Amino acid sequence: MGNLLSADMARLWRCKAFWLSCLFFAGQTCATMGREYWIGTQTIALHASLENYIFPFAFFLGLAAAVVCTLYLGAEHTVGFRNKCCVGHSRASVYGAALVTCSIASALLCTAAVVPGAILGPILLGEGVSAMALAMIAGIYLLSMAYAAVFTAIAMLISSQAAAPVVAILLSLLLLAVGYAGVQRLAEPPTIPNPAAAPPTIEGVEPDRDAAAPERIPNPNYLPDGPARSAVQFLTDFLPGGQSYQYGAVSTGTASMRLPQKMASCAAVFALSSTAGLALFRRKDLK
To answer: Based on the number of CB atoms within 10 Å of its own CB, is 274 exposed (0-12), middle (13-18) or buried (19 or more)?
Structure first.
């Protein structure tokens, strides 16, 4: 497997999608922090922590991993996988080398965003990375591994070089949309303002509303504590898209909540995707 991994890593360094994604993440972090530095010099007020300017790349982590993994592995379906098996490599070794390479690529995407922020933070904003931010960065790295496992399975099982990227990109967008919906549903307050309540009078004009109506009414979208809320919470923390949204929107305060459960979920997604992908790849017709 060592030779396979060396060959796959050599191909990764020549993958344009990988380098463009790294440049995008690094440029996003630098641009965000540069803009905040300029605003800070104008207002003399910085209210957000450093991770608010580094972590937004998590929104695009799944999309970038989908593009890199599928484009990188797509070319192998022509003759690459079959030739590797013909010269004596097992399918498990071929799959394992591809999985390790895609995992390294996803981790390097995170590094491209985190390292510039860690370097520029103390210089531009006078703030370093906190201990909690380091823990969340570790969680994002595990999240990148989970994405790599999912999209490696898709790229190894779908032979079409055109279909695999489309399926992976649509899946990444769907996961992010489901995660957004879950976070927003969990954030619904128990009560909302009552539209029928009488607002303050303006210029002596009495409002045409019921003055006895309560100012706030129960929110029909609120999920009370119970099985339904627990299920939505579990899915939001388990699915990679839910974690991407929580890390990206770190200002909401949910990124650091239940961090051990999120890390365990990433490990579970990685194990399940890898096991299922390898089992199906063993039965795939490489001809």
So the answer is: buried
Q: Write down the pLDDT at residue 43.
A: 52
**Residue 79 DSSP SS3:** coil
Name the nearest CA neighbour of 246 among 75, 79, 12, 51: 51
For the chain, which residues make up each domain, given as ranges? 2-166+255-283
Residue 241 CB burial class (10 angstroms; 0-12, 13-18, ≥19):
buried
In the prediction, which pLDDT does 41 show? 56
Token digits of residue 66: 């989908």
226-229 long-range contacts, CB within 8 A, separation 24+: 229/186
Q: Tell me the average pLDDT across 200-221.
A: 64
> What is the reported pTM?
0.87
Give the CA radius of gyration of the chain. 24
Element (H, E) at 172: helix 163-186
Q: Calculate the alpha carbon distances from 196 to 188, 189, 201 in Å.
A: 20, 19, 14
